[in-house]
């Protein structure tokens, strides 16, 4: 997440725990958003049975795959911008 | 009279008119007021027809528009019919621990054109039905001649390695293998039914057959190519020792892809320590090139590889131990594509009759979706006057049965060494003649052979090994499904299992 420069001191255990906590929160947040978004798109509101049918399965596969690709692309872009700015301003992302 | 003088000149015409009017006094009154029929009905009778030129224009444009609108309306209805036929499959339940059925679609840029027409053709005719049936598919695309063959052969070789065959240079595991391994560990099952290949167009079909045979009958390792020439200097013949089982064609083919294969060729040549003395200088020159190219090739393998086995060696190649009893069924899809300004009438005709194509392709795709397959037919040639000898002779070097196949239309089978060198097989396989009529429409640039070019799967006639051909199957729609489709078209039936809203 954050890249440390050579001069910074190592994070203490409290900071490491905090970083881990934020990461867990981020992952679960992403999971929830993913589930919500793909359910809205792929599963029609009028269903009669609990099993996923093939149409919904395939749609969910594609939705999840697209979500992650978008995620990756956006984060690449942001990291690129942040790296560019960090070089100028000396700040980490 | 002075008054009568000036009106003399204008007098006779009005007098004439008045005379005429007086003569046709009975018609004068209704002529001035419009159509008597309309007047009699009480409708306003002030309308008149447009002029002659407008009439011509309106007739032509409205007939064209009429043809177009009718055709598109019918096409939509036909596609809806095929979609309705298959959409009950999308409602079947699928447990979350099973992968859906994944087809493989082979798309290749038609000769003389780019990839976009192929993609558009797929999106317009094939995709709606696949989407309606909730099929998942994987696309193998090829921009140049030979790419689809390369990719398919790579895929088959990879499959063989997964099934246990050992290669000298095993392909590196990539993300695909990792994903499969993860699936195995988590307990997710692959689809256990038949999968299937959809092949669009005759050119892609030829490459598909070549790639299939190259993958199954060819070696797992790339044949050692004699030291490739530099791309800049003129091609010099290589003196290195003969390659192993494959291709005398490897030498000329290497020049065509010299830029892309110099890395591999040089690696092989350096490893095998062929007598490089006459070529000591060349590797040094080439070292700089492969270093530049190798860094590129590390990220991406070359698009078109030299084939690992040439068609003439199909019959002598052993079947691999991992060869399945039946290959995945295939569905060749017609892809009419014609270029050229003189072909404009044909193209306009096709533009106005797309409904027939939609029907044909819809039928084929529905057959793929239903996974209803049959074996390919093997028609034994019966005419004694045919060039190919009967099953008795084995040493004749005729152009085998490929020219006798019902495809008599393809003029593209010009000089090809491969067909003449094949052993005569007693069968005229159905695969050879499928979609053969499309070859007439290929752009003439496809028939031009450049110097030192590698093999041209499009131009050479199809060579089929019998062992592979017997194991191939073809998707074909069953009779009762066909009848059900007709009933849907008439409106007597709907989606299978759907609730009727009466």
Automatic annotation (TrEMBL), chain A:
Domain Tim10-like intervals: 17-79
Keyword Zinc: yes
Source superkingdom: Eukaryota
GO molecular function, one term: unfolded protein binding
Keywords from the UniProt entry: Chaperone, Disulfide bond, Membrane, Metal-binding, Mitochondrion, Mitochondrion inner membrane, Protein transport, Translocation, Transport, Zinc
Membrane topology: Peripheral membrane protein
Protein's UniProt keywords contain Cell inner membrane: no
GO terms classed as biological process: protein insertion into mitochondrial inner membrane; protein transport
Primary localization class, coarse: mitochondrion
Cellular compartment(s): Mitochondrion inner membrane
GO cellular component, one term: mitochondrial intermembrane space chaperone complex
UniProt record similarity statement: Belongs to the small Tim family.
Domain notes from UniProt: The twin CX3C motif contains 4 conserved Cys residues that form 2 disulfide bonds in the mitochondrial intermembrane space.
Protein's job: Mitochondrial intermembrane chaperone that participates in the import and insertion of some multi-pass transmembrane proteins into the mitochondrial inner membrane. Also required for the transfer of beta-barrel precursors from the TOM complex to the sorting and assembly machinery (SAM complex) of the outer membrane. Acts as a chaperone-like protein that protects the hydrophobic precursors from aggregation and guide them through the mitochondrial intermembrane space. Mitochondrial intermembrane chaperone that participates in the import and insertion of multi-pass transmembrane proteins into the mitochondrial inner membrane. Also required for the transfer of beta-barrel precursors from the TOM complex to the sorting and assembly machinery (SAM complex) of the outer membrane. Acts as a chaperone-like protein that protects the hydrophobic precursors from aggregation and guide them through the mitochondrial intermembrane space.
Complexes and interactors: Heterohexamer; composed of 3 copies of TIM9 and 3 copies of TIM10, named soluble 70 kDa complex. Associates directly with the TIM22 complex, whose core is composed of TIM22 and TIM54. Interacts with the transmembrane regions of multi-pass transmembrane proteins in transit.
Protein's recorded name: Mitochondrial import inner membrane translocase subunit
Species this chain originates from: Xylona heveae (strain CBS 132557 / TC161)
TrEMBL record, chain B:
Matching InterPro entries: Lipid_Phosphate_FormReg, Mt_import_IM_translocase_Tim54
Keywords: Membrane, Mitochondrion, Mitochondrion inner membrane, Protein transport, Translocation, Transmembrane, Transmembrane helix, Transport
Ranges of Low complexity composition bias in the record: 16-33, 226-265, 277-292, 381-424
Main location: mitochondrion
Protein's GO biological process: protein transport
Membrane topology: Single-pass membrane protein
This protein's GO CC annotations: mitochondrial inner membrane
UniProt keyword Phosphoprotein present: no
Location of the protein in the cell: Mitochondrion inner membrane
Region named Disordered: 1-33, 223-309, 376-424
A Pfam family assignment: Tim54
Family per similarity comment: Belongs to the TIM54 family.
Identification of the protein by name: Mitochondrial import inner membrane translocase subunit TIM54
Record lineage: Eukaryota, Fungi, Dikarya, Ascomycota, Pezizomycotina
């Amino acid at each position: 997440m954050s890249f440390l420069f050579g001069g910074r001191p190592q994070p203490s255990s409290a900071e490491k725990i905090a970083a881990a906590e934020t990461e867990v929160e981020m992952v679960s947040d992403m999971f929830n958003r993913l589930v919500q978004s793909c359910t809205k798109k792929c599963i029609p509101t009028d269903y009669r049975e609990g099993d996923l049918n093939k149409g919904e399965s395939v749609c969910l596969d594609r939705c999840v795959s697209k979500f992650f690709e978008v995620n990756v692309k956006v984060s690449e872009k942001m990291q690129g911008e942040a790296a560019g700015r960090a070089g100028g301003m000396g700040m980490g992302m | 009279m002075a008054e009568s003088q000036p009106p003399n000149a204008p007098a006779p015409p009005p007098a004439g008119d008045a005379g005429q009017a007086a003569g046709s006094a009975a018609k004068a009154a209704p002529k001035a007021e419009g159509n008597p029929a309309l007047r009699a009905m009480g409708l306003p009778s002030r309308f008149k027809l447009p002029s002659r030129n407008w009439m011509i224009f309106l007739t032509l444009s409205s007939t064209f528009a009429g043809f177009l609108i009718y055709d598109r309306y019918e096409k939509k209805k036909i596609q809806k019919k095929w979609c309705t036929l298959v959409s009950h499959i999308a409602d079947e339940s699928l447990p979350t621990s099973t992968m859906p059925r994944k087809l493989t679609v082979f798309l290749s840029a038609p000769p003389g054109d780019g990839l976009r027409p192929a993609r558009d053709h797929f999106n317009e005719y094939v995709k709606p039905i696949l989407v309606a049936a909730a099929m998942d598919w994987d696309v193998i695309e090829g921009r140049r001649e030979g790419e689809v063959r390369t990719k398919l052969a790579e895929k088959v070789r990879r499959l063989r390695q997964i099934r246990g065959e050992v290669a000298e240079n095993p392909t590196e595991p990539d993300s695909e293998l990792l994903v499969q391994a993860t699936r195995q560990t988590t307990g997710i099952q692959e689809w256990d039914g038949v999968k299937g290949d959809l092949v669009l167009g005759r050119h892609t079909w030829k490459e598909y057959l070549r790639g299939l045979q190259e993958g199954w009958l060819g070696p797992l390792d790339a044949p050692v190519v004699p030291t490739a020439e530099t791309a800049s200097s003129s091609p010099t013949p290589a003196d290195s020792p003969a390659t192993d089982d494959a291709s005398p064609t490897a030498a000329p083919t290497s020049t065509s892809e010299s830029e892309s294969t110099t890395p591999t060729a040089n690696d092989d040549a350096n490893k095998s320590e062929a007598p490089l003395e006459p070529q000591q200088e060349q590797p040094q020159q080439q070292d700089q090139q492969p270093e530049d190219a190798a860094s590129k090739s590390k990220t991406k393998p070359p698009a078109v590889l030299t084939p690992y086995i040439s068609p003439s060696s199909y019959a002598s190649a052993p079947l691999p131990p991992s060869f399945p009893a039946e290959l995945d069924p295939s569905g060749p899809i017609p892809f009419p594509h014609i270029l050229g300004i003189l072909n404009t009438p044909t193209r306009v005709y096709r533009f106005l009759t797309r409904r027939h194509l939609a029907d044909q392709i819809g039928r084929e795709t529905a057959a793929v979706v239903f996974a209803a397959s049959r074996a390919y037919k093997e028609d034994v040639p019966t005419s004694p006057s045919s060039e190919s000898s009967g099953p008795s002779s084995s040493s004749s070097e005729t152009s085998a049965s490929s020219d006798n196949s019902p495809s008599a239309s393809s003029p593209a089978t010009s000089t090809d060494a491969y067909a003449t060198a094949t052993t005569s097989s007693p069968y005229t396989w159905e695969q050879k003649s499928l979609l053969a009529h499309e070859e007439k429409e290929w752009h003439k640039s496809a028939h031009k052979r450049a110097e030192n070019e590698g093999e041209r799967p499009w131009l050479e006639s199809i060579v089929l090994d019998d062992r592979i051909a017997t194991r191939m199957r073809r998707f074909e729609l069953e009779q009762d499904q066909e009848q059900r489709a007709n009933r849907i078209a008439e409106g007597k039936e709907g989606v299978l299992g759907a609730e009727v809203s009466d």
